[in-house]
Amino acid sequence: FTLRTFAGNGREQEVDLLLDKAKELHEEAKTSLQFESAMKALNLANEDKYDEGIAKAHFWVADAMLNIGLYKDAFKHLEGVQTTSYFKDETEMQAETHRLKGKGYLILKLFRQAIQEFQLQLSCAKVLKGDLQKKSYIKAYANLSTVFSRLDKPDSVFKYIQLQLEGLRGLDEKENVLLHIAVYDDLGTFYTKKGDFVKAELNLKKSLALIEKYKAPIFYNTYTYLANLEQAKGNYKKALTLFEVSLANMEKVGVWDAVARMCKFLAYYCRYYNLQGKWTADEYDMAYTWGKDSLDNKNKEVMDAVMSQLVQSKEKESAKKISKSITVA
């Protein structure tokens, strides 16, 4: 969702600016900075009892926490969104909150709950209008496609991919390039699993063309799916090169958990197929085991920033409770 207008007074306008910044940082995959901006907005909105700001700040805090891995706290903030009047009055906020809850359940492999949330998102989307409605539908269909792929239900996967393609018609390609890339990635993966390598390659090349055309900064998923295709075709060396391109983009973007998982996978892959890419199997093992401390430190920097903000927030809450108890006494 986007901010509709700036609020009237100075404090509320400051909250809106912080929320705008949090959204920008989310799009740039700068999670810790997104969290800091959203927490500042939440603290100010709470002090001013600015209901719309409280709802949106809780949302962006929850989004950051899901990406970091603080799932319990993320769900608490989503509950915070749902207690506001803004949530009850604004269908777009309801749809986005159900989407984010569904994403959390999907990460936790609670597929039944994830499906329920995405279905609730679709129900909310019926009330929305224009491109806003289309985008909400597409996001829900994409997530449902992922759920059913994990559940190994190809007919349902294909159904939701087709619905995504129908929804993309008429949407501006440049403004919605990530949605276009995602659906071609899904199709490529679908056909790779079916063994239809020609169609798989055709769709993944469409993703690549969009990445190159619009200089998309995040493309590790596409290269991973291309590598999976080449592995399925028996081109193990070519697949390794593509996996390494994916790994390099993961490092550049800063998704360090994904970097660690890929290093672990490549150690096994190189050993299993007796291959060497930029590194040997043993070197990838070292990157995952001995070198994992440095990756953990990068995650720790994010976690430290988050925990610092959480502590400050809880200290303010405690100070308010003490202040109230003194006043009552």
In short:
It contains 16 helices and no strands.
Question: Would you write up a description of this structure?
Answer:
With 329 residues, the chain is mostly helical. It is built from 16 helices and no strands.
Strand pairing plus helix content: what structural class? mainly alpha
Backbone shape: globular
Distance between the termini: 44 Å
- Helical amount: over 70%
Instruction: Give the biggest sheet.
Output: none
Number of helices: 16
Q: For the CA atoms, what is the radius of gyration?
A: 22 Å
Low-confidence stretches: 321-329
Order of helix and strand elements from N to C terminus: HHHHHHHHHHHHHHHH
Task: Classify the beta-strand content into a percent band.
Answer: under 5%
Average pLDDT, to the nearest integer? 87
Based on DSSP secondary structure assignment, what is the total number of beta strands? 0
List the helices and strands and how they pair.
Elements: H1 10-27, H2 31-48, H3 51-68, H4 71-82, H5 85-89, H6 91-107, H7 111-125, H8 130-150, H9 154-168, H10 177-194, H11 197-214, H12 220-233, H13 236-253, H14 256-273, H15 281-288, H16 292-328
Helix pairs in contact: 1-2, 1-3, 2-3, 2-16, 3-4, 3-6, 4-6, 6-7, 6-8, 7-8, 8-9, 8-10, 9-10, 10-11, 10-12, 11-12, 12-13, 13-14, 14-15, 14-16
Please tag this protein with its features.
329 residues; mainly alpha; 16 helices; 0% strand; globular; disordered C terminus
